Amino acid sequence: MKKVLKNVSFIFLLLKMCFIFGQESATQKIIIIDVGHGGKDSGAIGINGIKEKDVVLNMAMEILRLNNHLEHPLEIYLTRSSDTLISLSDRTKLANSLKADLFVSLHCNHANNSEARGIEVYVPKETSQYARDAIWLAFEWQATFKEKLGFESRGVKFADFQVLRETNGQRPVVLLELGFLSNLDEHAYLSNNRSSIAIAQVILMTIMKY
Questions:
Q1: Beta bridge partners of 153
Q2: Strand pairing of 30-35 and 75-78?
Q3: Extended strands (E) in 110-159
Q4: Which helix (DSSP H) or strand (DSSP E) does residue 135 occupy?
Q5: Which of 17, 24, 159, 190 could lock 122 by a disulfide, CB 3.0 to 4.6 Å apart?
């Protein structure tokens, strides 16, 4: 049965939230958005040749665009802003050199089973003083993606991915797998520019709650 994902617009709520949370502190947290893959590393290749590296870059650029229109923009840095291959170690070095307060890595999923669908959120396997914050953010994203956009939740999971491992212990670290490019419905959704905006809004809203 085909499931319809939603392209809702809640930019006014986003603006209101930024006004409220922006008054709490004059010092903005430093946020790293890690844009997965790039260059010769296409990441997952889905239906009709859609590439993970392109999908997540579109999302990241929408996050920046939305953030720049807020009354109190967050201090956000991307690990890449074009189709460039950046090593995993350089991504984590950027977060460490900037003394980032939060590291969020964007990815899309793929499976041999074309029926596989939904959002997966990963946090570091190794515990740290920031584990509670990372897990809170992970569950918050799971719930918001389901409530606002209709994505199924595949759970919060623990992993030892390099970007999680090398940035853990200094800040909360979360890796988002934003739907399956191998699923017909989610492939169509993730290929849509309006969907990139909706997903960017969910990501940004949750960051602002942290």
A1: 119
A2: parallel
A3: 119-124, 153-159
A4: helix 131-144
A5: 159
